[in-house]
Design a protein that fits this description.
This protein is an all-beta fold. The chain is built from no helices and eleven strands. It has strands at 2-7, 10-13, 18-26, 33-39, 46-52, 57-59, 67-71, 77-82, 91-100, 104-108, 112-117. The strands form two sheets. Strands 2, 4, 5, 6, 9, 10 and 11 form a seven-stranded mixed sheet that branches. A four-stranded antiparallel sheet has the order 1-3-8-7, with no helix packed on it. A hairpin with a 6-residue loop joins strand 4 and strand 5.
């Protein structure tokens, strides 16, 4: 089992910045991917960015150049630095932890609200 603890989020004006953090604990496989997804009202959940335990990152086109995902040296905490925020970034952001071992396993955080006012 993997537990995820999210922090960050809140209300910010357009053009501002926020930083999300997600700490994983429990039985953590060495090879894994941590990332953030978001879901706006009336829309499907979508990938924002993720980063593997070996470094490669992946970003949604809508956030490239504005958001940066990183992990700490222990590889158990993932950060999402969000700059130049736009009202369309408003959503509930969910931390995701996944690994593959004879199948795919996903764990999700409880979600944190990010609201960007215009």
């Amino acid at each position: 089992q993997v537990q995820l603890m999210e922090s960050g989020g809140g209300l910010v004006q357009a053009g501002g910045s926020l930083r999300l953090s997600c700490a994983a604990s429990g039985s953590i496989p060495n090879r894994n991917v941590m990332g953030w997804h978001r879901q706006a009202p009336g829309k499907e959940r979508e990938l924002v960015a993720d980063i593997s335990s070996f470094g490669p990152t992946n970003y949604a086109d809508s956030v490239k150049g504005r958001f940066t995902i990183s992990r700490d040296n222990a590889k158990t905490t993932v950060y999402l630095q969000m700059n130049s925020l736009k009202p369309e970034d408003t959503a509930v952001y969910y931390c995701n932890f996944r690994f593959y071992e004879r199948g795919r396993f996903d764990y999700w955080g409880q979600g944190t609200q990010v609201t960007v006012s215009s």
